[in-house]
Amino acid sequence: MRTILLACAAIAPLAAAPMIAQQNRAAAKVAPADDIEILHVHGSIYMLAGAGGNITVSAGKDGVLLVDTGLAENADMVLAAVQRLQRQLQVKEQPVDLHWGAETRGTLQSSLNPIGPAKPIRYIVNTHAHPDHVGGNERIAKAGRTFTGGNVAGDIADAGQGAAIIAYETVLNRMSAPTGALAATPEGAWPTDTFHQESMKLSHFFNGDAVQIVHVPDGHTDGDSIVYFRGSDVIAAGDLFVMTTYPVIDVERGGTINGIIDGLNKMLDIVIPEFRMEGGTMVVPGHGRMSDGADLAYYRDMVTIIRDRIQTMIKQGKTLEQVKAAKVTGDYDPRWGATSGAWTTEKFIDAAYKTLAPKSAPPKPTGTTKKKSQ
Amino acid sequence: MLVGVSSGAQQYPSDEEVNTQATGVDLSGEWTPVREEDNTGNTELGDWVGIPMNEAARLRAMAWVASIQTLPEWQCRPHAVSYISRGPSQLRISKEVDPVSRTVTAWHMEWLRSIDKPVYMDGRRHPSENAPHTWGGFSTGQWIGDMLKITTTHIKEEYLKRDGVFHSDRIKVNQFLIRRGNYLTYILVEYDPVYLTEPLIRSTEYVIDPHQNIPPYPCNVVEEVDRPKGIVPHNMPGTAQYYADVKDFATRYNIPWDVVTAGAETMYPEIQAKIAAGRAKNAPAR
Question: Does pTM top 0.90 for this prediction?
């Protein structure tokens, strides 16, 4: 139940906090936030569950990179979980090799202090702008320290303060506001590094991974990104792929069902199973359990089949009410549907229909129009 | 026999009474299925008799077309744990032994085309709900006398039968292995809150076959059908094909449609009266 409620928080508008978002936040508070679960995915990558949206973590000798930061009220719990993870990793590290006489320092000191200071959080990547994924940005970014960017290393004293926050450009637009207007989120939560192209890459390996951030247009929102850790072979999917509900389509913020399907297929293009269509490239969904390509394929199949049914009925001239009456999701409802909560089956069909139906023609200009003289 | 399992307290101690130190019997070996009417291997479209399917499961089966298995993501999949013992496949059971205590710490079960299914006997807990699911699931075992009870969770969504009848990834399967000399009875009790209205209970009989060797099953994904990217084959509701495929079974075997779609009712002997009544109603007037 909690995961469903948290998944639904994803559609909460950023600016005014309407009742739906308040309800979900209340639900999140009621849930024991101190049990954030750490699951190892592959290589340097971990999944934190229980903070709102799932958080994907790269942890190692380069420091920490987080994909999303959960709900604001869980930020301290996330930081505690990251520290717990780092301690576990340090304990796992191999003991220092025995040195020999020509070494300039002995090993006794390191044996007295086997656990060194944890490396800071360097980067946050936001998959989209919803509060259950960016809520912890400000608190967590402040706790971090990034590598300085561009050509400013060493020239500007505060260039490395706080973790860098990376996102597609529209995420910044959603979270900020033009000068003089009230922003949806505090400035400290805003992305510090945005991109406009179809993808961007970190300029160096991070904990052994090449990190690629790929934008998916018009999917869950208009600012979605997936993050691919090429090495550990893990995709952080954001809310383009959730294991708890039908896909949440935030139509008001540019989401479409076809964009969701494009995103799912884009991820399937990356996925290579380890053996018998299982394992290999792992996928961390925006909500719900850890997944692989087979889970992703099932979800893609389900969304595509439902899309095809709605699309066909639209072509036949059916109204939204007729589509709903036809129970186009009947075979999948017991697993993915909901009749209550913020993201119901009905709302999913509404959103899918709305984004598939041909746009109505713009209203004809009123007033007199002069006929051309013949 | 199946009734005996569901009311196991008559024959076996309850779970609470299980002696966890019991070593049970040796299950390892090469087992080959004994063919009988309940284990006929491949199935037919629309053969839903004996499965407690709900309406959603039926709708899904009607929309299913075999062509979906030509998609690259569907090729090379193994049979999942809830299906494979029902297929025409041999079974190999091997054991993992602690070298010091010489106790069995895990059984490994392997069928044709399936991946290894370890059954842990060391008392470990099942993973969290957020852990990934696999075709074989996560299994733990305990002895109830000389019967091994296996509890399997974390199973991927997959078919119960190869005609579009699916279980969800929320399924839990209890299995009971009973060895009687050269014979092994394998019973599955499957609980799926998504697609089943009652537990589905099935059994398979195996006989030991010391000459058997389960062959390897290499597989490469190929482009089986030249189709545009993004197509997912399925029967569209309202089309003739949507009903034709599944109704063919009922027509061919003269089983009334309301019997085929009766779900859990079809598991019990009383369904025979409904079949007879339906046939009488449908019989041509003389």
Answer: no
